[in-house]
Design brief:
With about 260 residues, the protein is α+β, with helices and mostly antiparallel strands. The protein contains 4 helices and 13 strands.
Length: about 260
C-alpha cells in the first residue's frame, strides 16, 4: 500500500503539469475562437513616426480634435498620429452572438512598461485565471494556483489575450477596405470611428477615444447582424500596482533580469 501511495505521489506532478498544459491550451482556444470568429487575427504594428495632417489641442474639457473633418481619406493618418498610454487598466467585455444565443466573457487588463496581464472572470464575477505577456513569452495560471504555464507567444499578441481588436491595424489596411469614418460621441466621450470591410464578408467598426487614445468599443457584423461586440470601460490611467505582475512562482514581470531568467 505504501509503494502504491508513493507511486501515486510521483505521478502527481506529471498529472498536474499535464493538466496545466490542457488548461493553457483551452484558454488559448477560447481566445483564438473569439478572434477567428470574425476574421484572421492581426498582429499589432509599430505606428509610423511623424505627425498626421491634423491639428489638435488640449482643453480643460478633454482632448478634442480641432479643425479636422475625419473622413475615409484621412482616418488612417489620424489613427497613426495617436498613441496609447504606456500604463493603464481597463475592464473588457466581449459578447459573442450566434444562432439567437449570446455569451459574455469578462476580463480586466493591466498594462505597464510594455507588459500586459489579463484577469479573466467567471460567471460569478470573480477571478478565474490569468494570462500575461512579456516580450516573447506567454504565461497562464489559475487563480490561487502555485503552478504556471510558460511558452513562446508565437502569433499571440497582448491584444489577443484580452480579446481586444488591435485598432492600429487600420493604418496598414487597404484604403479600399475602409467603408466609413468620422467622429462620434460614445458615453459622452469624443471618439473617432472607422469601419473596415474584411475579405471574409465581415465588417468591423472601431471607436477610438480621442481622450485616452484607446479603443473603447468595437463591433463585428456580418450581413447587418451583430456577431461580436467588445467594450472597454472603467479605463484608469493610473499605473497598475506591482502586485498584478507577480507570477505564482514569485517572479515579478516588471523585473527585467528576473523575467528574462
Amino acid at each position: 500500500m505504501e509503494e502504491k501511495t508513493q507511486a501515486q505521489k510521483e505521478k502527481s506532478p506529471k498529472r498536474k503539469h499535464a493538466g496545466l498544459i490542457v488548461f493553457a491550451c483551452a484558454v488559448l482556444l477560447v481566445i483564438i475562437l473569439a478572434v477567428c470568429l470574425t476574421g484572421k487575427p492581426r498582429h499589432a504594428i509599430t505606428l509610423p513616426t511623424g505627425s498626421a495632417d491634423v491639428s489638435a489641442e488640449k482643453e480643460q474639457a478633454g482632448y478634442q480634435l480641432k479643425d479636422t473633418n475625419i473622413t475615409v481619406d484621412n482616418v488612417q493618418q489620424v489613427i497613426a498620429s495617436m498613441k496609447r498610454p504606456s500604463s493603464y487598466s481597463a475592464s473588457v467585455t466581449n459578447t459573442l452572438y450566434w444562432s439567437g444565443s449570446w455569451q459574455k466573457i469578462n476580463a480586466t487588463t493591466y498594462v505597464r512598461d510594455g507588459i500586459s496581464v489579463t484577469e479573466y472572470k467567471n460567471a460569478q464575477g470573480t477571478a478565474d485565471h490569468y494570462i500575461a505577456i512579456r516580450d516573447n513569452l506567454y504565461y497562464a495560471w489559475r487563480n490561487g494556483s502555485t503552478a504556471q504555464y510558460t511558452a513562446s507567444t508565437g502569433s499571440i499578441s497582448a491584444d489577443d489575450t484580452s480579446m481586444i481588436p488591435t485598432y492600429e491595424t487600420v493604418v496598414s489596411a487597404d484604403k479600399q477596405s475602409i467603408a466609413a469614418a468620422g467622429e462620434r460621441t460614445v458615453n459622452g466621450e469624443s471618439c473617432i470611428y472607422v469601419t473596415v470591410q474584411a475579405d471574409n464578408g465581415y465588417s468591423l467598426t472601431y471607436w477610438v477615444s480621442t481622450v485616452s487614445g484607446l479603443l473603447i468599443q468595437a463591433d463585428y457584423t456580418k450581413e447587418g447582424d451583430l456577431v461580436r461586440s467588445v467594450v472597454l470601460d472603467n479605463i484608469q490611467s493610473k499605473e497598475p500596482d506591482d502586485a498584478w505582475f507577480q507570477l505564482p512562482d514569485g517572479t515579478n514581470l516588471l523585473e527585467k533580469e528576473t523575467a528574462n531568467g
